[in-house]
Amino acid sequence: MEASQGPTYRRPPFSWEHAIVLAVAAVIGVYAGIAAGLFTQSIRFVQLLLFRSGELWRSLVLDPEASWRPQFEHRLLAAHWHLEFLATGLLLFAGSFAIGSLSKRRRIRIPLLQAHRIRAIGLAGAFGLALYYPLVVLATFNGTFSESEGGLYGILAAAPRWRWVFAPAVGALLAALLVRYVSPESGGHGVVEVIEAVHKGRWDQMRGRVAIWKSLAAGLVIGSGGSAGREGPVVHLGGAVAASLGRTLSLPREQITLLLACGGGAGIAASFHAPVAGSMFALEIILGDFSVASFTPIVLASVTATVAASSLGGTGNDLLFVAWTLGHPAEIGIHVALGIVAGLCGILYIRLVRASEELFEGHRGGALGVWLGGLRPEWRAALGGVCVGVLALAAPRALGTGVESMNAALAGQLALGALVLTLVVKLLATACTLGSGAPGGSFFPAVFLGAMLGGAFGRAAHWLLPSIAANPDAYAAIGMGAVAAGATTAPLTGALMMFELTGSYQIVLPLLVACGIAAALVQGYVGGSLYSLAARARGVILRSHGTSLRDLSVAQAMEKVEPIREDLSWSALVQMVAETTHRAFPVVSREGRVIGLISVEQVRGALLNADLAQLTVAKDLCRTDVPRVLPEDDLESALERLKQAGVAEALVVSTETTALLGVLTREGALEAWRQATQVR
Predict the structure, then answer these.
(1) Residue 371: what are its φ and ψ, rounded to 5°?
(2) Do 29 and 37 touch, CB atoms closer than 8 A?
(3) What is d(CA 618, CA 336) in angstroms, rounded to the nearest whole number?
(4) 16 or 198, which is more confident
(5) Who contacts 556 (Cβ-Cβ below 8 Å, separation ≥6)?
(6) Between helices 231-248 and 16-51, what is the axis angle to 10°?
(7) 306 contacts 274 by C-beta, under 8 angstroms
(8) pTM
(9) How far apart are CA 619 and CA 170, in angstroms?
(10) CA torsion, points 368, 374, 379, 382, in degrees to nearest 10?
(11) For the stretch 568-589, what's the b/e string if a residue is b when 16 or more beta carbons lie within 10 angstroms of its beta carbon?
């Protein structure tokens, strides 16, 4: 009798597709880390050009042999060249060709398609490592001028006041000219473009050339003192690298979408030296997917970007470490109050940026808005830079990214009045910078606002309750995470980022409380984050966390229908209804004024009455009590208005001019929801 055999287990086959995605994610991380370093050094170089031009002229032109050239040569020889990067790049370069050759000769068992992909990934990785060496030269050059190491605020202290106003205008003007005449696609903040590529499948617009020009334009804005974040261009560049590699390797749609999220998370990780926060940013904000399959490549890209940003001369952690301990249980209640205040600050930040954008585009503000909207884009950006410079006369710490001022708040070196004044000026300066069309990120300004708000709140709490709020300086770090979480409605990203930046595990307790409350407050009052509102305005349907009607706008569901005249005859009306696919028609007077709306069902119902054939015109069937909705209204509230009015259609009108834009129907709203929730 034969012995019974147990079940046999077969080892699952090796997945080339999964290995390729992980390899591409690692390459994306390398590029994001180097991009963060190059971008930071470019910002410092622009600061030297605009604020220390006299010293540059003397050192480089008038007498370079005196002190600058020997110092530069000495620093260049002493720089960390890391020849292992060169060796690794050469191995990748040689190996990529060897694999292709051996695969063609069938010397190795690799499918031909995968061999071509491995070759392309190896070449991309080798080129990325080679970019380290221009970064060394640029960083060494900047390092020969000690003022550049002290941050923009230290440079401003030695610069005349007229440059405070002049430099931001020049930087914004040059950036706007570059966007208009060299790369029109390089406008925008960076993160929203990646979100659009992920949720709308438009990764063909994410090109490396565009990302490079965007980085250069943003470097001009931030280096000249514009109030914008350095993370936006880095996120965009990471997404562009992901899209370029995805197209080159002919990867499926789902994998390219995942790699775009890898690029976005790697950009945040490299900018803040926070791999966990970068991963959570990609999952929580860009992708909206917490599956295990998405987690692994994103984490790999974020970790690689962080290592590259520090090892390859990147930014590293520029913020001070903060120690915090829970001295009294009642202090959690103070952090609840801080979360509420941070949420209100996030709401104000979102509202100001959106209002400034509409003002500079001419959509609001009356005569001033009309005048601003009529200006050429470069002059609008320059005017925004002038406004930033004028505001800086009251609080120069608001210029640029303000890392040195954030450290001053974390160290308790700023008085309460300085904190509050810088907070107000930073809010207005960021609105002027981003609203006028200058490229740059919006995340880092939220972190800066949180530092000022938290520092001021901590001082006030310590003055009122000294025995409970014993460490007021730590509130600046908690405020940084809370305002960032509120502006992005991403509490985990805000909490984990500050946990990584502060290096204190215990600070996670107040961070989770404050970040959660701030994000919930902004979501409940505004209905979205700074990113989701901007994406919704671009017609992007966010498919995260189960799309609801509140996540969709009227603009995504409305039908653009040509209006009909009120005196249109019955026969013409019947013929139009017989041939149309629309469900309703707006009715206008002879002067073009909107009167109301006629539904197709009304006309078809009237066909049963033969007496109408000789008497009825469009005006006789027109309903004048239909509601009017705005394109930015969410579908949930718009459908509620239809229900209250007892109708199935509404007119969509412009926000400012009340001009007719289209028609919203219940069927159109449901169709928009169906398309948003269908499986990609």
Answers:
(1) -65, -45
(2) no
(3) 59
(4) 198
(5) 536, 539, 541, 635, 672, 676
(6) 140
(7) yes
(8) 0.76
(9) 57
(10) 30
(11) bebeebbebbeeeebbbbbbbe
